[in-house]
Specification:
Elements: E1 3-5, H1 8-17, E2 21-24, E3 32-36, E4 39-43, E5 47-52, H2 56-63, E6 69-78, E7 83-93, E8 96-108, H3 110-128, E9 132-137, H4 140-147, H5 155-168, E10 173-178, H6 185-196
Parallel strand pairs: 6-9, 9-10
Antiparallel strand pairs: 1-5, 2-3, 3-4, 4-5, 6-7, 7-8
Helix pairs in contact: 3-5
Length: 198
């Protein structure tokens, strides 16, 4: 549950501009409540507490300054192929870890889970407003398909690749690189933790 130190008046305005639903506080200590996407926020005198399934829907609005470069690590996990699956991602910029997360996605193949992880990471990076994105993943198949070096014969994976390129169009520059599993360990851990806790 993220707690962001910020001015509640400025936070309310940024959330309103982003399309959040704003409602009055429910106690003397609460300034307002806000709902945006799958996140809920409660503002106090000098902080905002964010809750919900996807806190990034609000934290990106309040913390994202727009611009700059971000490094993205993604990984999908699958128990059986197909089987119960989850995604993990980590966003790192010059200040450190900006956002990380893991969530289950239902039944999928390993390659579908990898694509889902990449898509989720790109969506979060876009919410923060970065201009440049450097993507790292340990799935050689996904990296090479996104680059266009390998064909995508499976119709489902082809749809995923199209969605990835739609999201990449939101950035001024991007690169995608295959890395060893140990370089991608945190994203892998987040995906597996999501499955363990399902």
């Amino acid at each position: 549950m993220p707690v962001l130190e910020c001015d509640p008046t400025e936070a309310r305005e940024r959330l309103r501009e982003a399309g959040a639903t704003i409602s009055p506080g429910k106690t003397d200590h609460e300034v307002f409540h806000a709902d945006l996407g799958e996140a809920h926020a409660v503002a106090y005198e000098d902080s905002v507490v964010v809750q919900g399934k996807r806190p990034v829907d609000i934290t990106a609005v309040l913390e994202g300054d727009g611009g700059g470069r971000v490094h993205v690590y993604f990984d999908g996990a699958c128990r059986g192929n197909p089987g119960p699956s989850a995604v993990g991602f980590v966003l790192v910029d010059e200040h450190g870890i900006v956002e990380e997360g893991g969530e289950t996605i239902g039944r999928a193949t390993n390659n579908q889970a990898e694509y889902e992880a990449l898509i989720r990471a790109l969506e979060v990076a876009a919410q923060y407003g970065y201009d440049e994105i450097e993507i790292r993943g340990d799935s050689e198949l996904i990296v090479k398909q996104v680059r266009g070096a390998w064909q995508t014969n499976d119709p489902t994976l082809r749809e995923y690749r199209v969605r990835v390129h739609e999201l990449l169009d939101e950035f001024e520059e991007y690169s995608i690189t295959h890395v060893p599993r140990e370089t991608n360990e945190r994203a892998d851990d987040l995906a597996n933790e999501a499955l363990d806790n399902a």
